[in-house]
Amino acid sequence: MTRDSGRSVPIHIVGAGGLGRETLDALFARGCERDSLVLVDDHVVATELHGVPVRRPDDVRDGLFVVAIADPGTRRRLATRMLERGLVLTSVVHPRATLAHDVRIPAGCLVLANAFISTGTRLAAHTQVQYNATIGHDSVLHEFVTVLPGANVAGNVVLETAVTVGSNASVLQGLVVGARTFIGAGAVVTKNHLGDRVLVGVPARDRGAPAGMAGAVTERP
Ligand SMILES: CC(C)(COP(=O)(O)OP(=O)(O)OC[C@H]1O[C@@H](n2cnc3c(N)ncnc32)[C@H](O)[C@@H]1OP(=O)(O)O)[C@@H](O)C(=O)NCCC(=O)NCCS
Hints:
Elements: E1 2-4, E2 7-9, E3 11-14, H1 18-29, E4 37-40, E5 48-49, E6 52-55, E7 64-67, H2 72-84, E8 88-89, E9 92-93, E10 98-99, E11 110-111, E12 116-117, E13 122-123, E14 128-129, E15 134-135, E16 140-141, E17 146-147, E18 152-153, E19 158-159, E20 164-165, E21 170-171, E22 176-177, E23 182-183, E24 188-189, E25 198-200, E26 205-206
Parallel strand pairs: 3-4, 3-7, 4-6, 7-8, 9-11, 10-12, 11-14, 12-15, 13-16, 14-17, 15-18, 16-19, 17-20, 18-21, 19-22, 20-23, 21-24, 23-25
Antiparallel strand pairs: 1-2, 5-6, 25-26
Bound molecules: coenzyme A.
Protein name: Acyltransferase
Active site: 137 (proton acceptor)
Keywords: Acyltransferase, Transferase
């Protein structure tokens, strides 16, 4: 539990799916008590999970929050909704993530276990680096970037707003990937790409705009 002027401040995890429960696990690993945590979801299937209450977004008022949803557009929409309700954005970093001494974690970020973020890297608000993902030195991750489990972003890479790097994908050093592009699982990105594309394969090929790929981006941030 965090304390603000002696008052307990609950942490709300928005999204009670798999990523929400992984975020809960990161907070347990940080020593947070169950009574300081709240899961928030529009689709409440149980009143509690792992001893933590589950509430609807309209039923929460005060405290801190982080959005545990991988899709960048949904993440932005839910963050706006929580901010409008007066909650304050925070970040969650698993204690077994490794961050270089000069890496700063802005509000809204989520960094899961065994993630590695190298020196000189800059993360913007609302970025996610999920478990076992690695970010090389001097890379820049703009707002709402999502790096899914096991992905490898090499050094000096720029991922523009709301890029998603799929599970086990790689982005080679020095490249720029345009906003909202979705890199499919296992792809190897070997050259610069514009925004609003879906890239798959080795080397990564442009499969067109995300609208044609149901599993890519569901809401435009
Ligand atoms: C790229 C991606 C977004 C496409 O999703 P989709 O729109 O549902 O695509 P479909 O499953 O309809 O596949 C469309 C075509 O692309 C191919 N394809 C899909 N994903 C692919 C991938 N990662 N690499 C290579 N080819 C892929 C399919 O085989 C299919 O080819 P076909 O037309 O020759 O049969 C998705 O497959 C993907 O890789 N998502 C990332 C998943 C991930 O990392 N999850 C981690 C969760 S923790």
